[in-house]
Specification:
GO terms for molecular function: hydrolase activity, acting on carbon-nitrogen (but not peptide) bonds, in linear amidines; metal ion binding. Its cofactor is Zn(2+). Keywords: Hydrolase, Metal-binding, Zinc. By secondary structure, the chain is an alpha/beta fold. It has two domains: about 290 residues, Aminopeptidase, CATH 3.40.630; about 110 residues, Alpha-Beta Plaits. The chain is about 35% helix and about 20% strand. It contains 13 helices and 14 strands. Strands 1, 2, 3, 4, 5, 6, 12, 13 and 14 form a nine-stranded mixed β-sheet that branches. Helix 9 packs antiparallel against helix 10. The protein is elongated and about 80 Å long. The chain starts with a helix and ends with a helix. The chain binds zinc ion. The site of zinc ion (ZN) has 6 residues, from loops.
């Protein structure tokens, strides 16, 4: 594989949605916004340059195929996403897409003939930042999408359906994106670790054994937006304080269960210095590798919300925005990655994955595995997100060998 070619494509993709000072302000490339649409064109261009035949499905998944010798055989699929969070980094998702293009391009250039077709996929809206729920492209492929998603609106009031149509896709035909189980032999995703385990072990590459699935909830407390001066403390229905209590409960419950819990998005209305918060809306993200324990965590948090609402005399509404089951990786794909590392004399280790990925969804229709690449200081979803050039190249070489192992 060509390390320099991979690196320059990563740097080029990073310019779409980047602010002037990328190391401080990062990249904002939300799904289907103009930055994302421009980046998509670049990815399509790259795939064509790599000699892949490119197709974009009804929900905007970009699929580049390297045809195998035997096209009756199921395809081997690899890929990730190119959308980002607000002020995100250069590698999350991007490495999995561009690394896959580079790996497949190198396979083609080296004249290796594979039995199975390889599809490189850039999935639509993995992050879910714009409309509040993610994995849209992979869910469409796995047959897990339904109409309700089309009615979701972004902060500007644009519906998902409108955004899809404006981008030139056909959301009403979303069922046509579904892929059959028989069609796909395996799905493998290369991704930055977004944690510090590999760095701590001095290893550039890791093999993922299982993925935590997130539950996303949106909670709305409604109290009274009374005057901050005229309302004595004992006569208040302060939704902001209710929110503060639940935030601390989330911390307690997640710690107690050995999972993780985060409140990352808050909104208070009317939001004035001298007004008691009337409405407080906030997000909760709960994750655990064990599904039963995660269900217990969710129930405990729901109970805490209920108790706080009674105690403070505010109403509570809880919407579950996303619920993805944790998944164990396929032993077959893990073996193929291990074999690849062995072929390359590349030391590696097995580790769990804390973040959610398209792989979680793809695991419902095929054998799934993930290659992790070392992140500097474990920083991710942040302008300072970093993975060294050499590590990107090693990950891509491991992906190259893994694809050959699976498709020859
Ligand atoms: Zn990602």
């Amino acid at each position: 594989m060509n390390q320099q070619r991979l690196w320059s494509s990563l740097q080029k993709l990073a310019t779409f949605g980047a602010s002037e000072n990328i190391s401080e302000e990062g990249i904002t490339r939300l799904s289907l916004q103009k930055e994302d649409l421009a980046a998509r064109k670049y990815v399509i261009e790259l795939m064509k340059e790599a000699g892949l035949s490119v197709k974009v499905d009804v929900v905007g998944n970009i699929i580049g195929s390297l045809k195998g010798v035997d096209q009756t055989k199921p395809i081997v699929m690899t890929g990730s996403h190119i959308d980002t969070v607000y002020q995100g980094g250069r590698f999350d998702g991007a490495l999995g897409v561009l690394g896959a293009i580079e790996a497949v391009r190198s396979i083609k250039e080296s004249g290796i003939k594979l039995q199975n077709t390889i599809d490189v996929v850039s999935f639509t809206d993995e992050e879910g930042t714009r409309f509040g729920t993610g994995y849209i492209g992979s869910k469409a492929m796995a047959g897990e999408l339904d109409e309700t998603i089309l009615q979701l609106r972004d902060d500007e009031g644009v519906s998902y359906e409108e955004a899809f149509c404006q981008a030139g896709f056909q959301p009403e035909r979303y069922k046509e994106a579904i892929r059959n189980k028989e069609e796909i032999k395996a799905f493998i995703e290369m991704h930055i670790e977004q944690g510090k385990v590999l760095e701590g072990n001095n290893l550039p590459i890791g093999i993922v054994t299982s993925i935590q699935g997130p539950v996303w909830m949106e909670v709305t407390f409604e109290g009274h937006a009374d005057h901050a001066g005229a309302t004595p403390m004992n006569m208040r229905y302060d939704s902001g304080l209710a929110m503060a209590e639940v935030m601390l409960d989330v911390e307690k419950i997640a710690t107690q269960y050995g999972g993780v819990g985060t409140v990352g998005k808050l909104r208070i209305e009317p939001g004035g210095v001298n007004i008691i918060p009337g409405i407080s809306k906030f997000s909760i993200d709960l994750r655990h590798i064990d599904k039963t324990k995660r269900i217990d965590m969710v129930n405990k948090v729901r109970e805490a919300i209920h108790q706080v609402s009674i105690k403070r005399g505010v109403s509570a509404k809880v919407d579950v925005k996303k619920s993805v089951d944790p998944k164990v990786c396929s032993p077959k794909v893990m073996e193929a990655i291990e074999e690849a590392c062995h072929q390359l004399d590349q030391p590696t280790m097995k580790l769990q994955c804390g973040a959610g990925h398209d792989s979680l969804i793809m695991a419902n229709i095929t054998e799934m595995g993930m290659i992790f690449v070392r992140s500097k200081d474990g920083i991710s979803h942040h302008p300072k997100e970093w993975t060294d050039t050499e590590d990107c190249a090693i990950g891509t070489q491991v992906l190259f060998n893994t694809l050959v192992n699976l498709a020859q």
